[in-house]
Amino acid sequence: MTAQTAAATGPLAGVRILDLTSVVNGAYATQILGDQGADIIKLEDPGGDIMRHPGVPGGRNADGLGPNFLTLNRNKRSIVLDLKQDKARKAMAKLIATCDVFVASVRYEALTRLGLSYEEVSAIRPDIIYAHAAGFGSDGPYAGLPAYDDLIQAASGMADLIPRTFGGEPALLPTQAADKVSGLFLAQAVSAALFHRERTGKGQFVEVPMLECVTSFVLVENLYGHVYQPPADQLGYPRTLNPFRKPFATKDGHIGLLPYNNKHWAVFFRVADFGDEFAARPEFATVSGRNNNIRELYALVEKVAATKTTQEWIDLLRPLSIPVIALNRLDDLENDPHLQAVGFFEHLEHPQVGHYQVPKPPVKFAQTPSSIRSHAPQLGEHSAQILSEAGLDDEEIAQATGS
To answer: Which domains does the chain have, with CATH numbers?
Structure first.
């Protein structure tokens, strides 16, 4: 692909989204919605999204198209408006009238100062979906505070998972987990609100607070004994907060290995030469018994895993339907045979950046396939085009954009 040529075929084709998000959280959500066919209009101030600029030493970061920006902002069109200027705000009102969804990660107080509160936006388009990616819910004492991935990992309990498992100090997961989890919540919320509007004709305000989203994600299994009131057991799910739950070293590498049900474990004990008596031991014969003795059990698996090569374990266990897979380092992903077979990495040709690759949309829609139709845009690349679509003439476009 060298230019925007393909028509949108995804399930959201025909939906127009005005995107006032940046960095990762909101940008990841709108990337997903764009892959699924929505027309994403990325509104930037004259300085542009900060993610345009972090680069790779020796990389081709032409025109503010850094590697993360290229990945997060495909299938989007960029418009630059300085919303502190009257002409730009008037153009913004006309643009809002053409959009189905308004999504922003700017703090709500700042949006209100710009005349972009829900009440003001919905006065322009009453059936609009207004989705606000907040750091914290508006009803709590943290409302309006700045929020970033590091802060939300710290506040949500996520940073407590590693020390509960391995000891030591609280630690951040080495990925932007809070941003991406919140982005998934945001994309799902926009889709659900669009479905509601399709059924009722009514728009609505949708708040997607990072702290609440990530905390709910962490507590799916880790609320554990505190689900019951008064608490019946500890916080934290013992099976996952287990230092032996990890890829197991083999003679020549590592494997992911998880005998899961009673039959799996009985067969695994037999073929791994533990002896039939292991499967009959009360602490290993039932799900509750294994969960109560999970550290001892995984320590046994760790010890036996080292007796065979990775391929020997795969050849032995897959015919027995025991879940097993070779570990991939990051360096291995581009050559993984499954990812190669499904065409996971899409190779593209950018007129400024040149050849690059990104993960293709992972979800498959049989009737309405997602697609990558356009590169991440240069700053303000589509300003005139978008404002013309909103009904502005050449003079009004020049005034709105300051060009």
So the answer is: 16-218+340-401 (3.40.50.10540), 248-326 (3.30.1540.10)
